[in-house]
Each structure stands twice: as structure tokens, then as C-alpha cells.
Amino acid sequence: MARTFDIRKQTGFTALAITCFAVLYMPIVLLVVYSFNAGSSIAIWEGFSFRWYATAWDNDQVQAATIRSLVIACCASGIATFAAVLAALATTRTKPWKGQTLAFAMVNQPLMVPEIVTAVALLIFFAMIKVSTGYTGLGYLILAHSAFCIPFAYLPVRARLQGMDLTLEQAASDLYATPFQIFRRITLPQLFPGILAGAMLAFVISLDDVVITEFVKSAGQDTLPTYMLGQLRRVVTPEINAISTVLLAISVVMVIAFFFLSRVRK
Amino acid sequence: MIEIEGVTKIYGEGKSAFHALDDVSVTIRENEFFTLLGPSGCGKTTLLRTIAGFVDPTRGAIRLAGKSLLESPPHKRPVNTVFQSYALFPHMTVAQNIAFGLEMQGKPRVEVKETVARMLELVRMTPMADRQTGQISGGQQQRVALARALAPRPEVLLLDEPLSALDFKLRKDMQLELKRLQAETGITFIFVTHDQEEALTMSDRIAVMNAGRIRQIGSPREIYDQPAERFVADFIGDTNFVEIELLETEGETAGIRLPSGRETRARSGAEARPGKATLAVRPEHARLVPPEEALMAGTLAEIVYFGTDTHYHVALDSGARFVIRQQNAPHHRQTHATGDRVGVSFAPGVGQVLRD
User: Fold this and answer.
1) I need a surface site. Which of A171, B209, B272, B352 has the fewest CB within 10 A?
2) Can you say where in the cell this protein is located (chain A) (predicted)?
């Protein structure tokens, strides 16, 4: 038997791989380690403590920003997932229609348009609305987050729909189910892992956003990431590390859950 | 009774138009085990799907007990399907799958429960009722699919190659099981297959299809013994084709002259006309005889042993090949050898003159 090309056996592969992983993970590991620093430097280790976690926990601004972040992420991922499910159904479960590819591209616009452009556009657009309506609440942030979260919710749902056996729906219709009953009893339960995965991905993306939030937010509407950005302009303490570590933990948990959900019953 | 009349399905337009079904007409009787048999792409599944309602025919009519089906969407037709892939709902248990059609019909809960229990009994799956469909074997999935389709008591059950995914032994068992179920339920079965043996053993009547058309309809015996044309004779079982001259016809038989010059009689359709024609002779209907007693003579080219029988390939003097199948006797000794001069003979009336 001819030996297949095994890239792992090539000279320098191991060294390169280690370098890449080191660059990827070393900073994160350091960040996590220094979040437990007893001293107030983010670079000089002075001993182990949960001090900065306690500080962050007691910080009113951090608390407010965290709640704001969660509210926005929950609302935005909910709205985005709902829209994404409808979009996915319309782009896979119908006879091919004119403009279907265009619709696909438009749904995924946030993946293609540079985020900073969207941010500036939203800033100007929302400013006009603010002037004419006087409304300055969280609605703008929720709307903006919903919009850029849609493709992240759309893609897993669509993948799930495409991988779904169409004859299941035919079988249901053969067994006297009306189109709505088919959707309710067959399509939706089949789709559910995809929907949940999409929602979780959207949630993490929303939770993490800086650029659009920074542009769109009104005064006093800091989310956790923009609050952290603001803190960097002043004295940096391991409090930032502690907040980051918590965010990291949430993201990792969500992404792992997403990974398992995407593989359910395939 | 289900009447299919002039059903035509054309995909595409103009030059690229493809006739998946071409003017198909057939009447299927109540309680019948009716089989659509043909090679893949012959239109048999398309015909089944037009009855189920998944395909709208371009032209034609389909009536069930005198009422047109074509205006109704699939969920309003009293017809259920067993899909080739079974299409069991993976997020439901065996019992939930079987209950689905009944629930959709709005049957009272007590009745649903009773019927599901009866169906589980019928397909011998009662111990598996609460299993997930992914946890049961292919043969068991097959039986659940059957029970699910039978539970709402359809007037017609459509079966789309339901046995093709099973291995040989299981397929044999399921063939008998299907026959039993049909007898017990009294429901009309329309069965699609490309397996001629399956069609012959299970059906009351068979429609042989090719290229979107029905080529012949008849009982298994008629289809096998009296194939109307070359395609049918060739598709069902093994057949020898002999170029002959048709001399005269008299009712259902005809006088023919073989390439060897010898004359005999064969069955023929009433529409057969004198002239060149093709004769079909089944290998098991012919005998190996000494050359001087033969209808046609040749040399023995090959002997193939099959266990239950032996196939003798004879190279006829006319240049054609002729295969004879003889059953092996317990203490049979091989008396022929390749290269021997041998003769081929068959009784008058055994061969079938084909419509060209």
C-alpha cells in the first residue's frame, strides 16, 4: 500500500504547531493566571487571591454593565434566532425562487460588510431617529445586535434544515398532517437543536461585541466589553482580568454546548 | 377500486422534456396485491407518488372508488405510503410513530391507544413500543413503517420498494409477512419493486413498466409464461430469443419455422402476422436431446453448475446461443462435455411469439 502524505511527519511541523498554539493560548492563560493576582499589577505576580473577583463583583458599574450586556444578548439572540428561522425556512423549504441567492447574501450581510462601516451607519441612522423621537433607551443596542447576530443564528439552522430528510415531512403529510401540523410536530422538533445552537452562538456574539456597541450606545449605556475598553484608558488592575476570565468561561461553555447541539441526532 | 387513466407526467419543456409517465392507464381492483415492476427510472415510483399526491400529473385522471383524487392534497387522500427509506420520525418512539396518523385524523385517545396496540401486535413489535426508532434494526423499522401506514386503515397502501434495504433472508421473511398482512387487513396494496422474483412471488397482478409506459399487465404466471414483448421477456427471468418465421396463426397459436428449417407451433398474440418474428423460450422449458431428434442442433459451449440445476449453453448452428436449464437429480452423472454435438428441443406450444 502506498503511504499517504502525513503532514504531521514533515520537518518543522511540530515546532510550527507549538508556536501557533503558544501565540493563541499563552496570552489567554496569562490573563487567567493574573486574574488571581493578589497585587494590583497585571504583570507582577504577588500571590494568589480572589480579591479582584470580589472587587469586580462589588463594582456597581460592572454590575450594571453586566446586566445590560445580558439583557441585550438575551433580547438580541431571541430576535435574531426568530428571524433566522424564518429566513432559513424561506431559503431551503420552498421551491427555488428568483432572488433566492440574493436573499441568502443579504441575510448574511453582517459577515461581509466591515463592522466599522455598519457601526458608523447605525450611529448616524439612530442619531436621526433619536432626534425625531427623543427615545434613548436600550432599544437601539438591541436592534443593532439583533441585526448582526442574524447570520450566526441563520447558518446553523439552515445547515440543520438542509441535512433534514424531506421525506419525513412527506410521510407526515401522507399521514393526514396539515402543513401547520407538519411544521409543529415534525419540522420544529427536528430543527430544535439547530435553533438552540444558533441562539447560543448569537448570544455569545452579542455578549462579545465592542465596535458596534461603542458607536451606538448612548451615555451611560456601557456593556461589559465597552466598560472594559473604557477602563483600559485609566489604571489597569487585574479586575479587568477577572471580568475577562468570567466572560471567557461563559463563552467556552456556550461554544461547547453549541458544538454538541450541532451534532445531535445527525 | 383505483382507476388510473391516461396519466402523463412531463418534466421540463420543449426539447429537454422528459416523459416520466407516458399515458399510463390501469385499473387496480379492491383487495388486490398489485405490483409495479420495472428497472430504475421506468416511472413506477413516479406513478406511486402521483397516487400519494406528491407528484401532480401533467395530464390524466386518478379515481378512487369513482372519486377523483387529484384535487386533494396528500393529507386528504385515504392512501398511505411505506417509504423506501421508511421515513420514521426520529424524535418519536415506535408507538408514537404508529399513533401519528391516527392523531392527525383526530381519533379519540382511547381509540388511538387501542389501534396502536393492535398494530404493534400485527407486526409483532409490542415489546419494542417505547423504543426510539434509532434503536431498532432495519427489519424492525420496516415493520414499524408498515404499522404506521396501516394504522389509519387506508383504502390503499402504497409500498415504495420497502424491502430493498433488507438483506436476503430478512427480505424473504418480510415478503411472506407482507402477504399475510394484506390478507389480514384486506387493504389494496400497490407495491413498487425492481426485483422480478419479489414481484412474481407476492403479486396478484403485475404491471411491467419501461420508459414511463406500462408494457404488460397480467398475473405472475401470464407475465412469465406469455410475455407480450421482448422487454418483458428479457426483464422477467432468463429467456432465449430465436429469430423465426411466422407461417400462419390460428387463434392463440402460430405455426413457425425455426432457423434450422424445422417447423413447430408456439403461442402467439391474436394480432401476430406472418413474417419475421422473435420467439422466446424459457431455459427450463427446453431440453437437451441428441442432435438427430432436435429442433435445432449445435455444439455444447459451456456447462455451468448451479446446485439446484445445471445450465447448458449451446452454440447453435445458426450462430445464436441457446441456454437450457435442467434440474439436477440426486445421483445425476454428467454425461455431456463441452464440444459435444447436441440438440435443443422444446414441446410445441411452449415458446411465445413476441410482439415486436
Assistant:
1) B272
2) Cell inner membrane; Cell membrane
